[in-house]
Amino acid sequence: MPGGLAGAILVEMDRAGVLALLRRADETADLPRLGGMARADGVVIASERFWAFARRDGSIQEGTMPSPPSITRRIPLVRGLLRLGLAMAPLFRGSNVARPRERLFLAAAVIAPFSLVFLPQSAALPLAITLGVLLLAWMLRGRTLFLHGAEHRAIAAAESGSLVATWDDVARPSRFSPRCGTNFAALVLPVSVGADHLWPLPVAAYTPFVVTLISLALTMELWQVVQTSRHRVAQVFLFPGLALQRLTTREPSVDETQVALSAVASVLKRELA
Questions:
Q1: Which residue, 26, 54, 121, 136, has most beta carbons within 10 Å?
Q2: 191 vs 80, 82, 130, 144, CA distance in Å?
Q3: What is the three-class DSSP state of 168?
Q4: DSSP structure class, residue 151
Q5: Spatial contact of 4 and 64, defined as CB atoms under 8 Å apart
């Protein structure tokens, strides 16, 4: 089974094979939970065990997700940071998902906010803004916004049992998703502000670093609760992120939706084996 950078493989799936897998998935009552991310030239779909990157040129790369110790999934806060790290795994494990320069840029973007705390505020703020603009431009380049909508639509089709209908453009599930990373980003800011103001210990050089980590972990815990809760009050926390998705997604074409569905089929092929 493919896995890791060296083990990630390119596969071929024809239209008939994809449709057969989607039809089988539509008839399966309990499918695994799926997530994903949009790239400028394709869509990544992942379950807890497998991931697939379908490109607009028709190629598909498959791989396996990392499998950390099960105990870490049960430790509050730690499990939140773990989820964040796992979400980025396909970018670093697939040789064709992100180029080496992109990986370096992404790693720098992740590490930089923690290093900025050691700079004077007059220098840290402009650098943080510049980094944010560059990261946003990198994330939203090309057809990313449209493929982001396609990713959400494909996952919603899997959850509603309408994969084949969505492929045929008979059904069009929502391009907005409550599990989108945009929702997480919308929650991080207020949680970070609250954590900063409520920090009970004396301020030290390491305080911004620790507060940032705790804020990310707390936000992930809150995000998971909101996603699984059916209470209307909990759903209010999703409104900012869903509103932002009007900016971070666009209505995808049928071809772009089929790209995302091909990635879904690749993951479910292995999940249902």
A1: 54
A2: 14, 18, 23, 28
A3: coil
A4: H
A5: yes
